[in-house]
Write a structure and sequence with these properties.
This protein is of the alpha/beta class. It has helices spanning 23-29, 42-49, 54-64, 70-90, 98-109, 123-129, 159-168, 182-190, 204-209, 224-228, and strands at 9-12, 113-116, 144-145, 175-179, 194-198, 214-216. The longest helix is centred in the middle third of the chain and has 21 residues, at 70-90. The protein is globular and about 50 Å long.
Length: 240
């Protein structure tokens, strides 16, 4: 973060930040019969689909892969993906990231307002099913959950994050967005918020290109004391 600012809330994306979401696998599997699913790589998912609303992601995937009649086929592709995803959720195939849980719990314990803001309409259910050591759920840590909330424009537009800030009653400039996708970083920046990129997939360059204020490969690297004081930086022992 270039300048110090008062931070009163942290807004987390869910898929890829808090939870190892099965979305990427579901999108890939649903391509069977349309094109070679192997072409849907993690790098392609991060660059073209991650963070976008379902229909936007379906169309972007088909267009990016050069599937004929992409616009006409996007609806069916999205429906197929959703069916696969729901079966994966029912099987519990979405482990939580321990570093994200530690960060969220530490911030919650110190009075920071927390929200989830994901384009996925499945994120809320996954968070309710994610149990913490004390028996509560991940959802119980949150002061607001805007997952799947309908907004006029999806990421990279800031609508979803602005709605989360409004629900919390916190000015956008006092919010930090934690995202794993370039579209999410751009959305946070467009809303006037500080942005923290988590590069779990060897994609730090994409997040840096979107001008995240800080990019880390593990959320344990974040200096929590500095964050609470208004400065986003890595802990000294983790400095690059």
């Amino acid at each position: 973060m270039a300048t110090r600012r008062t931070l009163q809330a942290v807004i987390f994306d869910v898929d890829g930040v808090l939870l190892a979401s099965p979305h990427e696998q579901a999108w890939r599997a649903a391509l069977e019969g349309l094109t070679d699913p192997a072409r849907f790589t993690t790098a392609f998912y991060q660059a073209h689909v991650a963070g976008k609303p379902r229909m936007d992601g379906a169309l972007a995937a088909l267009q990016g892969l050069g599937v004929p009649d992409a616009t006409a086929r996007a609806q069916d592709y999205a429906v197929r993906k959703q069916g696969i995803l729901e079966r994966m959720i029912a099987a519990g195939d979405f482990p939580a990231f321990p570093d994200a849980l530690r960060l969220a719990q530490a911030l919650h314990a110190r009075g920071m307002k927390l929200a989830a803001a994901s384009s996925s309409k499945n994120a809320a259910a996954m968070m309710r099913l994610t149990r913490l050591d004390d028996g509560t759920s991940l959802a119980d840590l949150l002061d607001a959950d805007l997952s799947g909330h309908d907004v006029a424009h999806g990421k990279p537009a800031p609508d979803l994050f602005l709605a989360a800030a409004a629900t919390l009653g916190i000015p956008p400039a006092a919010c930090l967005v934690v995202e794993d996708s370039p579209a999410g970083i751009l959305a946070g920046r467009a809303g006037g918020m500080a942005t923290l990129g988590i590069a779990r997939l060897d994609d730090a360059a994409l997040l840096e290109a979107a001008h995240a204020d800080l990019v880390v490969t593990d959320l344990d690297q974040v200096d929590i004391d500095a964050l609470l004081a208004g400065t986003l930086r890595q802990q000294a022992m983790s400095s690059r």
